[in-house]
Amino acid sequence: MGGAMQNFRLLAAGLAATLTLASGASAGEHWKFNVVNKSNVAAVEFRTQEDGEWSANWIKDRIEPGDKFDMDFGTDKGDCTVRTQIHFTDGSYFDADVDYCKVSTLYIYDNKLTWD
Fold first, then answer.
1. Which of 74, 105, 108, 114 is deepest in the core (most CB within 10 A)?
2. Whether the model pTM is above 0.90
3. Can you give the CATH number for the domain in which 7 is found?
């Protein structure tokens, strides 16, 4: 699971780089949250979209079903809503808008992302 944790740290750094300096979350708080893979298959790609273009894959290894990670974007600046795309080992994928200002836990399912 250590490799997967490193992957999510890379993801957090990458997502922070994709966020524009427009609107933002509460001052003084970083966007910190948990990510839980509640799907039935391992996730192999996690991409974000900015200006109509998808980012490079933010992870190198698989994120197995049931894995949970702590995330910290390291900022509270930028557009809260980021289009996020997930690809799985079975070839399936989906994308969804995520309001990262409101996320305490991000849940990856087989065909959707939810958060609380």
1. 108
2. no
3. 2.60.40
